[in-house]
Amino acid sequence: MRTLKKHQELPAVINVDSLGPITFVSSSRARRINISVKTSGGVRVAVPKRATLKEARQFVLSKQTWIEKQLTRLTRIQDEANKFSEKIKELDIDKASNKIATRLHELAQEHGFSYNKLTIRNQKTRWGSCSAKNNLSLNIKLALLPDELLDLVLIHELIHTKIRNHGPEFWQMLEKIYPLARELDRQINKYSGLLHLPL
Ligand SMILES: [Zn+2]
Questions:
Q1: Predicted confidence band of residue 1 (pLDDT cuts 50, 70, 90)
Q2: What pTM was estimated for this model as a whole?
Q3: Ligand 1 mean position, distance from CA 157 (Å)
Q4: What is the C-alpha to C-alpha distance for residues 78 and 130, in angstroms, rounded to an integer?
Q5: Domains of the chain, with CATH numbers?
Q6: Where are the beta strands (DSSP E) in 85-159?
Q7: How far is 123 from 138, CA to CA, in rounded Å?
Q8: 130 CA to centre of ligand 1 in angstroms
Q9: Rounded CA separation 179/117 (Å)
């Protein structure tokens, strides 16, 4: 009965300092107080049965700097995503194809890769692919990515002409060319949700 009583007040939306409204929910699965910052900008706190709302609130205050950082990061990502979807509307197909093909050729030369046929088209689910015959298929929307992300995708597909999977060997080769490959790869993922947008 005691544990039940503790959480009668949950779920609750409470203003915590400068963080604004935060949703606290009771969770039977959470082993500790768990804060999640949603892409929509909302902050949700899962409170395990044995913790009190007061403790959860104090925990949130102790993590205030971290939460603010996450919120800022998400706002920035959202801004970039918005800009990307604006740019899609004015994409020049010929210019875009040209840009991608030229850069691919440059990177292949520079790093010693060769490929067979290149197809550039509007794909809705992925940035690129490499067939068993080393034919590359690239997404026209790559032209809208920041240059370093475009390069990363191109090198990613070029490496597939030698290594077909994403195992340790693949990453080793990718990180040799781009030491920050893993971080850049995470950045690309935030644009992937925009691939379905029509041209
Ligand atoms: Zn791949």
A1: very low
A2: 0.65
A3: 6
A4: 30
A5: 2-86 (no CATH), 91-192 (3.30.2010.10)
A6: 118-121, 128-130, 136-139
A7: 8
A8: 8
A9: 28
Cβ atoms within 10 Å, residue 196: 9
pLDDT of residue 38 exceeding 60, the answer is yes
Q: 25 burial class (0-12, 13-18, 19+ CB within 10 angstroms)?
A: middle
Average pLDDT, the chain: 90
Nearest to 99 by CA among 152, 143, 129: 143
* Ligand 1 centroid to residue 133 C-alpha, Å: 15
Please give the pLDDT value at position 5: 55
The beta strands (E) that lie in the chain are given as 12-16, 20-27, 34-37, 43-48, 118-121, 128-130, 136-139
**CB-based burial of residue 60 (10 Å sphere; 0-12 exposed, 13-18 middle, 19+ buried)?**
buried
Q: How far is the CA of 13 from the centre of ligand 1 (A)?
A: 42
| Residue bearing tokens 């030229």 | 102
pLDDT band at 191 (very low <50, low <70, confident <90, very high): confident
- Residue 112 pLDDT > 60: yes
Phi, psi (degrees; rounded to nearest 5) at 129: -155, 160
